[in-house]
Each structure stands twice: as structure tokens, then as C-alpha cells.
Amino acid sequence: MITELEMQANKEKFIAYCHEFIGERDGLERLLKYMDDSGFYTAPSSTNFHLNVEGGLCKHSLNVFETARNIYENLLEPRRQAGDSSLNQPIPMESIAISTLFHDLCKMQMYHKTEKWKKDEAGRWVSYPGYEVKDDFPFGHGEKSCFIIERFIRLKKSELLAIRWHMCMFDVSEQGSAGRFSLRAAMESEPLVTLVQTADLLSSNCLEVTTKL
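Given the sequence above, the corresponding C-alpha cells read:
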């Protein structure tokens, strides 16, 4: 459970990170207002998996950014500077922030509170609060996040690819060889793609808990 105070603190941290690392990207303030109006800071991160509680989406986005930042600053960039890496250029922190903090905007207004039912230890049916999926714009996962962001700020090629493919093989498994080829090409052309994928996987599978409802 994430308390009201924690949700407010996470909201303030999220906005502070945007102002600190994204800077003067045109349209940022309009995007932040849209996110606030769309319930980003109170939405869950999932229905049945990681951070499936109110406020989970914002917390997950913070976790992915902080994880990606730690990986880059403490592993990738030192190795690049030492000449012991395939990275030819530094990855801008602005791009890391945009690609992680906004990667799951597709989940806004998609998870709705509902009454669910299960059997208790005595075999009796009991109700419990949960979430159901209602997607009014089924445009894909990463694709939908890119579409939302691009309505407000312009994304660089690396940012578009990182957000589009952040689900890695979870997203491409049903798309056939063309999807697999595109994913591989994106990972080979932009190191930011792999960084965001790694930070997302570590956050959702190692840092975040699932609440049994």
C-alpha cells in the first residue's frame, strides 16, 4: 500500500526530476498538467503484478529512472570514459529521464477500480477491491506512450525507440519475425533502448512487490 503522504511525496519528486533533468524541452509543462488531469499520480502500475496499488504507476516510473541513472552513472559511463565499452558517445541524462519517467504513460486511465470475487479459506465467495482493464485507445503499449508524449513534446529518435521497445521480448513475442528484427535493430542502434529495458525489468521484477488482493 502507498499512503496519501507517500503519493504526494512521489508526485513532488517526479515533477522535481522532470525540472532538473529535462530542462527546457518545449511542451513539458503542458504534458505534466495532462498527466495530473489524467490521474497519473494515483494510478496503479498493473492490475495483478508489480505495484498493483493506487499510486503504483508514479512509483514505478521513479524506480525505473533511478535504476537507469544508477546503471549509467556507476557502470556504463565510467566504462565508456575508460575506453572499455562499445559506447561511442555519452547517453544524455535528459533522454534517460524522458524515456524512463514517461515510458508507461499508456497506463493512464486504463486501470479502473472494480469489485472482484474469490473464495476464502472456508470456500465461501467473498468480494474484494481490484482493477479491471478498459482501454479506450488500444494502440499498443510502447506505441501508445510515444503517441501521448509526442502530442506535447518532441522526442528524439533514441527516446522514441527506447519507449516503443521498453517491454523487450514481452511485447515482441506475438509479432513474428518482423517485430523481432525491429527490436534487435533498435537495440543495436541505440544503447538507450537496452538501458531502459534493463532498468524496467530490474524495477518491476526485483524492486517492486505485488499486493495480493
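The mean pLDDT is 93. Try to locate this feature in the C-alpha cell string yourself.
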